[in-house]
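Treating backbone geometry as a discrete language has practical consequences that deserve illustration. Part of our work consisted of pairing the sequence of a single chain with a tokenised description of its backbone. We regard such an encoding as a compact summary of how the chain folds. The amino acid sequence and the backbone structure tokens for this protein are reproduced below.
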Amino acid sequence: MSLDKSFFDEASKTLAQADDLLANKYRGDFGGRQPIHTCYVPADKLSATTPADWGTAGLAVIDEHTPTAKSFAKAIGCQEQSVSEIFDRIKDKLARQPIEDLRIDFEDGYGRRGDEQEEQHINSALQAYPSLNVPFIGIRMKAMEEVTRVRGLKTLDRFISGLLGQGKYPENFIITLPKVTFPEQVDVMVAACEKIENDHALARGSIRFEIQIETTQAILDQQGRATAAQYIDRAQGRLTGFHYGTYDYSAAAGISSAYQTLDHPAADYAKTILQLAISGTTVRMSDGSTNILPIGTSDQVHSAMHNHYRLVRRSLERGIYQGWDLHGSQLPTRIAATWIFYRDGLAAASIRLKNYLNSAHSGTMDEPATALTLARYFLRGLDCGAIQSHEVEEFTGLNEDGLRKIVINKGNI
């Protein structure tokens, strides 16, 4: 053989850094549940009944404007059959678990109130916290810009201290860091997390955060490099996601207010860069919001529902599985769009996965990477409630554990 042990050793030495990146940074999505949305509630408006209040608002839209599966389907612009099979379950979810990810807002939705008032609202939010029974929760602090930096860091520190006073640090707690422009702001956030962890004897990495992308500099830096990709490394394993901010980013890009939408070409470009930056990592992504709410006359409500359904479906088709909702009235279309998206592809995905698992001959020959994507498709549908456990087994012959095993093994069986 021409290639001997010395060559193999040298090859391993040359590729050591690449191996390390593949094993650590690019180890892939961890397969856990991702919420279908994040709901921002100003800290001064938060109460123990906030999730239930949002659910009530969503149910009111259905009861007043689309009381039947047929009228709901007509409003959002899809087939009645697609809605009929989930209509009652949508209402059940609105009554049982309307909010999947709640963010207690101390930033734009809250404003600048002065230190004394913000401290009061930190205390009232902490009092409500134990009653907020949602799968994911956190706060949005103020930005690292000079004018808000100290207040934002104080709120971060005070809220975490208050949480620890109620018990152990919650595993489902995520901090939102808004308006990040330069990697050095991420460095300061990491340093703050480390200091708080050390002072409270928390395990390193316990405090995790997501970054809101609301400036053009967060997409491309002054040298034309993808800034968001740098954020991932600078966060040192603490970063959970990028959240696209529709209106702040659009304004930063110079887009007139009438055209600041989720589907503007500038928005698509920014989100494509973000998707490329997180690809293969454990960092996830959320789309932004639409401020057109289903409120007013039935015609206005139906128009807003159709628009929201269309935008949510569009994001899902582009591989963005989470978004922002601004009001409880948007929840019915968020749930419907997400559930119908997974159910529409259920039969085709199950055939492809079955064929792969059985090594059957078919018109499509899939690779392990595709099997991994198919398994994640079913798990996402299962996690959000679109697909029920018995349906997974009926369609694929696998239970949830079997699907998660495919994810763990990266599609290999």
